[in-house]
Fold:
Amino acid sequence: MSEISVSLASPQAEVVQGRAVVAVSVTLGPARSERVVLGVFRPLAVPGAPHAADPSWAVVERPLREMVAGATEQVVVTFAPPAGTPAGTYDAKFIAYPADAAPEEYAERGQVLRLVVPATPPPPPPPRRRLPWWVWALAGVVLLAVVGVTVYLLTRAGPAPEPEPTAARPPVSVVTTTVPVGPWPAGVAIEPGTGLVYVTSRDGSIVSVIDPAVRAVVQELGTGQGPIGVAADPNNGLVYTADQGGGTVAAIDIASGGAFAQADVGGAPFGLAVEPSTHRVWATLEDGRLAVVGVSAAGLEDSVAVGAAPRGIAWNDVDGRFYVANQGDGTVSVVDPSARAVVATIDVGPNPAGVAVDPRSGRVLVANQLGDSVSIIDLDGGVGSVAVGINPVAVAVDPEADAAYVVNSDATISVIDLAQDVVVDTIPVGGTPTAIAVDPGTGVVYVTNAADSTVSVLEAG
Structure:
């Protein structure tokens, strides 16, 4: 019998505006890789227990997964009880089991979630009495007088000057090309010197190289097992991959096109970022640490404890620090690389996943997967929030367009105008988008679509 366990970020979830989003962690034992299914079932009836939730209420994000031995994957499950469901509490049971086994065999290892359906709010109050006609007539006279005075003053002062544009180029607005890549693309990075786009294939254990000139894969590079994150270091001609299945960070030489070194980091790596001054690579690990890897993946030099289940990591050139999104506790760790220590911990939204930095202002943007929002952290520690699409998982910034692009699990990209911190556009992409990168020279955006094994290429319309 396989070692498979399930854990919940919270034992209870409340339905808000018709839905509740839950994060479920599935862990596979170290013995062997498995095809694992996460299902939602009715718990056994117990006298006095809450009602059982109907499994049809639940939508499981990619319920069947190819999991490598020892890996933990977080699965997003959305509950949407139908309109008219009576208020109360409803229990649902999560069971993870091998694809070739029956769920009943693993029922004892399942976890029960308590779903709270609130009462329907009372109807809105009746509309107010209409005002008498003479009030509207008087208001019209006043309005005409104000408009007349305004026009006179504006004419007298001359035409108002045109506002100065703040962005050097427009943001992207449309998918112009879709590029097939390796199975389950998980990460994407651009090497600025060549413009080549590097895409990790988690299920293929390869890196697909896209040439932007032809918008096609021109090379496939071998790397470690189950690569997720990817980062380019243009100053020494290397691309690094976080090989979650093998517990390593691999270095790929861009010139020769081969993985020539791998460093064992003592855990399952996820996100990567390069420290510009030293060329060291920093990797987030599932067990709540950052691994500090030597140049060219020469070996593990050190590790730094951060928050629970760190995912995304980004370098901030303005203050010289790393920012780490801790998905397990809803925080961002600010790490001083010189001291190799956390110097601040900032509360953000639920289940932060992706993180990016605006290089002009040093503001940090964090995609909150279960908050349907992006937190914006100022250098003084203040935190704002922008509502985006459903279950955002990644974010990237194009300073020349004064825009941020947010990857949502509902197969869309939210475009945030950073001058106003508001969403100004929503762009459809492929199935289960996972990662995003912006070419700093051209502003072209690349989005990995895991369910389709493609990359969407976005440009300004």
